[in-house]
From TrEMBL:
GO terms for cellular component: cytosolic large ribosomal subunit. This is Large ribosomal subunit protein bL28. One of its GO terms (biological process) is translation. GO terms for molecular function: structural constituent of ribosome. Residues 1-20 are annotated as: Disordered. Belongs to the bacterial ribosomal protein bL28 family. It comes from Bradyrhizobium archetypum.
Length: 102
């Protein structure tokens, strides 16, 4: 199982562990991932995803999973989240771009 967030694509980073004597050894900084069950209002079902705690805050801030996925860029999402986004867009209908009068 990969250590990657399914909504924000956060993954492991590499850096140095620095000792008291300033010796640097390689280490990995792993993302804080949680298994979370989201409720999709548009699809009418529960969705289990493995997301970072930062993404969990973003989903709450945007008003739920449906709103977050509709705003999210497709290149950041995992294939599973991208399928959910397409299903939500199909169910809700993609909002038309608003033209400004000049």
């Amino acid at each position: 199982m990969s250590r990657r967030c399914e909504l924000t694509a956060k993954g492991p980073q590499v850096g140095h562990k620095v000792s008291h004597s300033n010796i640097k050894t390689k280490r990995r900084f792993l993302p804080n991932l949680c298994n979370v069950t989201f409720i999709s209002d548009a699809l009418g079902r529960n969705v289990r995803l493995r997301v970072s705690t930062n993404a969990l805050k973003s989903v709450d801030h945007n008003g739920g999973l449906d709103a977050y996925l509709l705003k999210a860029k497709a290149d950041v999402l995992s294939p599973r989240a991208l399928d959910l986004k397409r299903a939500i867009e199909k169910k809700v209908g993609k909002p038309a771009p608003v033209k400004q009068a000049s």
